[in-house]
Amino acid sequence: MSVISVRELNLYYGKQQALHHIHLDVEPHSITALIGPSGCGKSTFLRTLNRMNDYVPHTRITGTVKVFGEDIYGPNVDVERLRKNIGMVFQQPNPFPKSIYDNIAYGPRLHGITDRVTLDEIVENSLRAAALWDEVKDVLKKPAYGLSGGQQQRLCIARALAVQPQILLMDEPTSALDPISTAKIEELLLTLKGTYTIVIVTHNMQQAARISDKTAFFLNGELVEYDATPVIFQHPNDKRTEDYITGRFG
Ligand SMILES: Nc1ncnc2c1ncn2[C@@H]1O[C@H](COP(=O)(O)OP(=O)(O)OP(=O)(O)O)[C@@H](O)[C@H]1O
Fold first, then answer.
1. What CATH number is given to the structural domain containing 223?
2. Helices (H), the chain
3. What is the ipTM of this complex?
4. Facing residues of 176 across strands?
5. Is residue 25 part of a domain?
6. Mutation test of ligand 1: which of 40, 48, 88, 199 has the most ligand atoms closer than 8 Å to its C-beta?
7. How far is residue 127 CA from its own chain's centroid?
8. ABC transporter domain location, by residue (predicted)?
9. β partners of residue 201
10. Which of 159, 164, 195, 248 has the fewest other C-beta atoms within 10 Å?
């Protein structure tokens, strides 16, 4: 079964249509890369998957987005539960102005976990899963702002993992990072896909080619082509995909 199943999705910002007839399925334990030129609708599409677009006024959606078979725009959807199950990581690392420990414990506390031993365990497991534990285990009480950009981004990934989501959405998570931190995050994502399903927006086509199983190429709010990553990068079926990946536009 698909983890995410999108059918005939249209999204409008006021009168402007930003997504047109999107049809896409995401398989479990895979990395799906969303690529395309600036303004083509990648972030807009990503936000439809956990209803982050609810926060944008005058947004209207038609079509369906199913997550584990549930229509997430249906009438009785618990949006808080949905977002707990679908973690999100953004372009700029955005730790809270709190200690490393409290950043990770924040979500679990919000969901009612107060027991110290349980919280300690969640903090350690999340930091280990985000490949950050060894670097921070002796400074858990120090402010998260003291970490490097790359460490902060792994902290944000650990924070997302702490509430045990099944899906991770990432909006250009490495574009503010240096090549070494980027490589670490890419390696981490390849490990995480064993447990989670990942959808990532990236402007870095080498990154999409290196880490993703499937790639979706967007242009002007349309999903032009969606296929196995080697097909998209080596034998695309659409001339527009080929022009984009060979650098002829965008
Ligand atoms: N909050 C908003 N209100 C109105 N229009 C918006 C809003 N957010 C995005 N748009 C418009 O929707 C279209 C798609 O934008 P979106 O940010 O999804 O593209 P993108 O492919 O993620 O771009 P980038 O790679 O530059 O982040 C653009 O025309 C943009 O101007």
1. 3.40.50.300
2. 42-48, 79-85, 100-110, 116-129, 133-136, 149-161, 179-192, 205-211, 229-234, 239-245
3. 0.96
4. none
5. yes
6. 40
7. 18
8. 4-245
9. 34, 171
10. 248
Q: Is 158 strand, coil or helix? A: helix
What one-letter code names the amino acid at 90?
A: F
Q: Is residue 26 part of a domain?
A: yes
pTM reported for the whole predicted model? 0.95
Q: How far is CA 12 from CA 9, 42, 201, in A?
A: 10, 14, 20
SS3 236: coil
User: Does the beta carbon of 38 lie inside 6 Å of ligand 1?
Assistant: yes
Residue 35 lies in domain:
4-245
Q: Quick one: tokens of 152?
A: 């902060």
Asked, for residue 250, whether it belongs to a domain, the answer is: no
Note every long-range contact of 120-126, with CB atoms under 8 Å and residues 24 or more positions apart, other chains counting: 122/162, 123/162, 126/158, 126/159, 126/161, 126/162
> Considering its fold, how many domains does the chain have in total?
1
Q: Residue 103 falls within a domain, yes or no?
A: yes
Cβ–Cβ < 8 Å for 32, 45? no
